[in-house]
Amino acid sequence: MKPSKIAKENIARLNRAITFIEGNLSEKLSLEIIAEKAHFSPFHFHRLFKIVVGETVHNFINRKRIEKAASYLLHQKEKNSTEIAEK
Question: Is the pTM for the entire model greater than 0.90?
Fold first, then answer.
C-alpha cells in the first residue's frame, strides 16, 4: 500500500501518535500505548506507521531521542552528558 492511498483520517491519527511520541520521549513508550492513543490495533498501527514514516516505531523513537540529546548537547553546554541522558 502506498502512502497516497492511505485515508486522510488514518494520516491524522498517525500524526496524533507522532505528536504524542515527541511529547513523551522521556517516558517509557510501548507500541501498545502509542497505538491506543491513535485508536489503532498495535499490528495495524505498526504496519501503517512503517508505510507512512518509512521506519519502525521503535527506530523512530530512538532517532527522536538521539536528536533531542544532540540538540541538548549543542545548546546546553553547562550540562554534562549524564544529565542529558537522564532527560
Answer: no
* C-alpha–C-alpha distance, residues 81 and 23, integer Å: 21
Number of domains in the chain: 1
Instruction: Specify the CATH number for the domain of residue 69.
Output: 1.10.10.60
State the Cα–Cα distance between residues 51 and 83, nearest whole angstrom: 35
pLDDT value for 76: 73
String of b and e for 5-25 (b: at least 16 CB within 10 Å)? eeeeebeebbeebbebbeeee
Domain that holds residue 73: 3-85
| Whole-angstrom distance, CA of residue 66 vs CA of residue 85 | 9
Spatial contact of 48 and 10, defined as CB atoms under 8 Å apart:
yes
